[in-house]
Amino acid sequence: MKILKKRTFAILLIALLVIGFNSCDDSTAHQETTASCCSTDKETQSDEPVSLSDMSVYHLDGDWHDQNGKQLALKDFAGKPVVLTMFFTHCEYACPLLVHDMKGVEEQLDADMEYTFVLVSFDDKRDTPERLKSYADSQGVGENWVFLHGDANQIKALSILLNINYEALENGQFAHSNRKLVLDQGGAIVFQQDGLQTKPEPVVKALLDLI
Amino acid sequence: MKIIGFYKLLIIGLLCLPGLKSSGQQQDMAFIEGGTYKPFVKGDKEEVPVNAFWMDKKAVTNTDYQRFVEANPQWSKENAKRIFADSNYLYHWPDSGLSQHSGPPDGAPVVNVSWFAAKAYCEWQNKRLPKLHEWEFVARAFPKNDVSADSLQRIISDWYSNRLKHDFLVGSVYQNTYGVWDMHGLVWEWVYDFNSIVMNNDGRNQEEMPEGLFCGSASLNANDATDYAAFVRFAFRTSLKGNYNLRKLGFRCAK
Known about the structure:
- The complex is a heterodimer of chains A (211) and B (255).
- By secondary structure, chain A is an alpha/beta fold.
- Chain A is 37% helix and 18% strand.
- Chain A has helices at residues 2-20, 24-39, 94-107, 129-139, 152-161, 201-208; strands at residues 64-65, 71-72, 82-87, 116-121, 145-148, 166-168, 174-176, 179-183, 189-194.
- Chain B is globular.
């Protein structure tokens, strides 16, 4: 029965896209765009300062604060590969697993490798830099882990840029996608992994490919 | 006598100034007194509160949008960053920009605009995109001149089946009881939090879709065009990405 419903949904969705909006052209173009995002990797690797491709997440303006209270912009992460995810510290189930997955990736990386792990909170009210600091300390993570606090409008824009869905629930929790993204030195998305308790190898490989 | 007359005029003029200013807003935007409604995805269980807000009476037109692009060249067809607006951005505009002799009619709703572009436009106007619940709340209102039970359903089903006759200009389909035009029947519209419908993408059930959509879809029946339309809108929103530009997707702002 459930499968039947899923099929009904899928058929409706396809019918909607193909017939209703006559958007075959659109979806093809989207694929092309996605493909072109990754072909620019090579250009952004070597030169310093890093030039940002048209598909760089770092074009998103706005000031954030890290767990040390330092103000920064996303483009300040340019120059090193980044593993990016969105989470919140009051999360009871999914986020500890997300952080656990990130640690699993780190365990497989050489100590001398340069990269940054960026975790952006959905929770603009409660995840203040102070709260993020105590969370970082409790997790025992290194200096290369950056926890970010921003205002609600920035968080929304970033989530939409990363195609991460979320909804604030009445009990203070957030329903959200569990997605880890690998960004190249110029901030273009080169890899993404959905889910929890995922294998670290694909993320590690995506990172190694950037060096 | 003349002097008194002059002062009288001056005083009247000064008194009218703030009035003119606020009536300017009232001309373009409708005040929506808040309330609660049952969103489609929550089934019959939950009422969601909607606070009072202002909503643009009409969708943003090509002419409106052209003014925005002129003031914000980073949003021109050639300058917009692909991460914010894919290659279909303003597809229906000539490459050189909109002119009087080419392109779509002035009063047509602007389409082929991404969420980021729509958001930037509204912020430029000191407004914002309406939230999903705000949009749905206003969309439930009946046509002003026809509050019979099935009037809204007829507009929607005529639209979906391409039977709706109108000239594709904003303010041409119907005005609802709030004074807001064309919530159905003209174009689909971006909402601020279109990504608030959470797919459960936990690795263990990749196929899982939002439960509400299935509860809703299971209760669909041919007589309930309003719910069917809501289902289609929610399904449509889950298929969007922020940099998509579609030829039937426009927007309006809120405050």
